[in-house]
Amino acid sequence: MSDVYVVGIDMLKFQKAGTAKSVQDLGSRAALLALQDAGLKIQQMEALYCGNLYQAGAMVGQRILQEIGQTGIPVVNVANACATGATAFREAWMAVKAGAYDLVLAVGVEQMGAGLLGGGGGGKGIPKEGLLGSATMPAVFAEAGMEHARKYGTTFEQFAKVSVKNHHHSTLNPKAMYQIETPLEMVMNAEMIAYPNTKLMCSVNVDGAAAAVLCSEKKAKELGLMKRAVRVKASVMTSDPWQERDLVMPDVNTCTRMAAKKAYEMAGVGPEDVNLVELHDCFATAEILHYENLFLCGEGEAGRMIDSGAVALGGKVPVNVSGGLLSKGHPLGATGIANIYEVSTHLRGEADKRQVPNARIGVTHVIGLGSACAIHVLEKVA
Amino acid sequence: MPDAASRPLPAVDFLKIPDDGAPYLEGSKCKACGSIYLGERSACSKCGTVGQLESLKLSDEGELYVYSIVHRSFPGVQVPYVSAIVDLKGGGTVKGNLIGIDPSPEKIKMGMPVKVVFKDALGRKDRDGNSYLSYFFEPA
User: Fold this and answer.
1) Which of A44, A59, A216, A272 has the greatest CB tally within 10 Å of its CB?
2) How many Cα atoms within 13 Å fall on the side-chain side of residue B138?
């Protein structure tokens, strides 16, 4: 089977939640940027995979084509919580990998509301939030972080340092929602949302979109697109395997570890070969867990890893150089493709001030709670 | 207006209120692999066995596994409160509010013994005016 390449990719600068004109406008603009990046036209696309969560029943992919070119191609709309964008990308990858198409467009797009996610309830009887604990995302991921604290003594300060790092990174990324330094005291003294996550340790709700053009090797060579192409070395997805507490306390660790093992194997690389990682820092607590889940460090060493600076730009394996979900922003359906954009930009050597020097291999990771984990390993070609 | 029930309803399906006797949490256990779940189920998601789950009364004793102190919630929800994950003695994990303790990381110890207590569901009523009985955790 042929390798699959990203030949065009881009994202919009993420903007304040609820300020975008429409979902189809966001998606269309990102799609056009990705096509422009590849030097291709919508008429050359053979299929569209569109990721969007909040309007999952409303044919967002078709609405995008109604803006930029109704060519009659198959459109698949996907929803998979925070793994939505990565799922759309992976479906596009599979279609090209299978030889069904040579050129496919993947779009991830979201228009968000403000405020807490999760815990909305529904169901019969009375509202359960604050009665049976909290199902809000900040609390759920706080509890996941406390499990790490329980096992390894990870501190509030170590969790907070993740946020300091990612906010710092975002000052170098003009497409991030925020470009603001947040010193440790500022992060730790920000409004407490769900201990140990303060407001600055929660991802930012934003409107945004990202898109990618995926291409077979044969076609990429034929069109002369290999020079800036990025090879998709691995695409892996898992759901949550049975775990003792999983139905009460979502386990974001095991599905990530399963996916990471498979992804490294498929790519033929090890974690020591990885030059940068964009991982799912929906909350500062979550990022700490994923250092170990992606085998960037040993069991129980994640707290020391953030202390050491190894995961900051200039360190051994920079994590979330884009600013991450914490500061770049987290438009749910767009996130998975936006992090592929970030890694691809570094592999192409086009990341300007935040460029990770000599980046050859990069990893992207997302988790949709409930759960879906998607990991991609990307490689520089030229 | 429909009439409210004369006695409280359970806040969740797996809380059982017998006519005679104390309320308890009900689980089900897979006869094939021994996994324990909250409430009734028709299949085991660990081993995939179908139709081999038996109901059992879960313990009212347990241990605090992890927690978060919630300071921001939805309008009308009183904060701060402690969201807790508790492992019950003999099996089963339950999520709920930990009460009867200062909501501070200095006071709450992961691994501390807790007991399951049953109280009114913080005054919450459904649209028919029914009261509900819920479960909470208290330091043992």
Assistant:
1) A216
2) 8
